[in-house]
Amino acid sequence: MTTQFLPTEQIPGCPICQHPEARFVGHFPEPHIEEGLSVHQCLNCSIVYLNPRLTLEGIHMLEDSSEVYLYDAEQQAKAVHDREGIIAWLESMTQLKPGSILDVGCNRGYLLAAAARRGWQPFGVELSQVSAAEARQRFGLPIYSDLESLPQGQLFDLITCWHVVEHLHHPVQMLRQLGELLTPDGVVAIQVPAYRFADEYIRQGNGLHIFCASHPFHYTAETLTMVLEQAGLQVFYCDESPKYLFLTIYAAKPSRSINANQQAQLAAQREQTNQKLAWFEHDHAAIAQTLESMNAYVQHLETTLKTKNEHIAQLEQHLQTINNGRIMRILKRIKR
């Protein structure tokens, strides 16, 4: 079957700060882009991005061609139950009580269904017509095609963007829109693949989970914080998880108050995160040291094998010389 390559565009520089120069990070195969993925890092703001990248038309074509897997009743119940834990965690870390929630990129609505169980008033935005229809049919959720279609004047106490921001061509613009949709104490919760652990994705055989045509950007805690600040939002929680390889960030309007108890919670969580990162980096250092020792041992074996082969060749040459001498003596006897 012939692969249909999607349309791409070359961009003149960093999509965030417009700096023209970047460091080439690497090239990766991609089934939807003929020339593969070229990953670059801006020399000014350090954001990591694709160049060339899919056009907006190409992104829509890719989204439309993606298969939507529909869960049976048992799988659906488990999916909603699991996401209740996410909502409970968000409530705990943001100190929010059930109010209005907007899930951007809500897919089939499982997170919103879980939120509704906990007393939240759910709203969703989903580009995929198939996924949106599934969410409406199974859970009766109000799902909209874009932010502009939301009820006029509706504000939200919590906005979730789970694995959405890495898909956007203009993240600052959309995050600024989300900030305008927040209540005064509202929170935007974002999760993306953590670029810090890109090597780990590849090591686990999941490189396409991070390096793929639909991800024009790759984020670290520092660069996503920078993007949120450009959008007028202030980060108050950040976790780069070496276990799940995700980056999770909570942000709010700068005017939002954070009480002392919440600050203590966040400080403790940051300490736990730093410890996890330290363990991860220690493990990687140990692995690197082991690999270095193994490579040195392999090199030693190769040198030893080469020496033995040279010795064998010398012995074979010596035996050949001896055999040639014997043959000559036999011939001389025959001549006599």
TrEMBL record:
GO terms for molecular function: methyltransferase activity. CDD domains: AdoMet_MTases (cd02440). GO terms for biological process: methylation. This is Methyltransferase type 12. Pfam families: Methyltransf_23 (PF13489). Keywords: Methyltransferase, Transferase.
